[in-house]
Amino acid sequence: MSPPCCVPHGGGRDAPEPAPVAVRDDGSRDVALVVPIPGGTATVGTDAPVFRADGEGPARRVVLKPFRMDAHAVTNRRFAAFVAATGHVTEAERFGWSYVFHPFIPAGIAAPSPEGTPWWGQVHGSFWGAPEGPGSSITERLDHPAVHIAWTDAAAFAAWAGGRLPTEAEWEHAAKGGDDAARFPWGAAEPDDATAMCNIWQGEFPRRNGAADGWVGTAPVDAYAPNGFGLFNACGNVWEWCADPFRVRSLSAAARQRNQAAAAEKERVMKGGSYLCHRSYCYRYRIAARAGRSPDTSAGHAGFRVAYDA
Fold this sequence. Notes:
Layout: E1 34-37, E2 40-44, E3 60-64, E4 67-70, H1 76-86, H2 91-95, E5 97-101, E6 120-124, H3 151-160, H4 168-176, E7 203-204, E8 208-209, E9 239-245, H5 253-265, E10 268-271, E11 291-293, E12 302-303, E13 307-309
């Protein structure tokens, strides 16, 4: 049985209805490094799952058309431009709070934790522009990925930018960088507490982060070398939303129950893991790993990147 995922369940049924998607009339988008991704037959998922309950397997073959994709996760700078142009209000702002990793919460702020994930705290006033709550800022993190981004927020940005969220199959294909057998964007080599290949936890989660990679939270979107297709930080740093509804491909009773719950919450797929992942706890910085959360879920490690039709 897998441990609780490091993505807390968020949102709720008492939130206002989402705002309409804001789309630029001229169809243009902010300047971003966009790379071509070739089409072809791709392998999605794995026949050697680590967390079977997440639906990592079985592996399946999918034929994909060529498409394009942001080389980087959407930065705070780009998201700020979107908000300035459209007036978009994120889910975290509509709820009035989002989840912040406890060590990052300023002293004196009450932050109750959700059941099963005591390292998260509900911080009122936390959102993409104030990632740790009142008094925090993105001023020194404009080139870091925007966080506290719900699926609805990501979809709105993508439409405004002239794109869309990638499908899970497209995301995996792009993350592999041309090596269909790759376990990680860089290949098969396993990161550890002394070797920085991506921005993940290094140490004993959640008590001690050795930060051998130089980061205790998010890193700049280009902090590590790109993969074979030119994508940076596909795994680690922040979870990335995909277009697909979350579903486990299994006929087991447990899978049916999981799928029923996911359908009821309208869960969407998240990929890539984050700076909080560690092999001992949330070994989900593998390309085949996945999570599903409701589209209004936001947290301090939830971001996205945009895909575009070729």
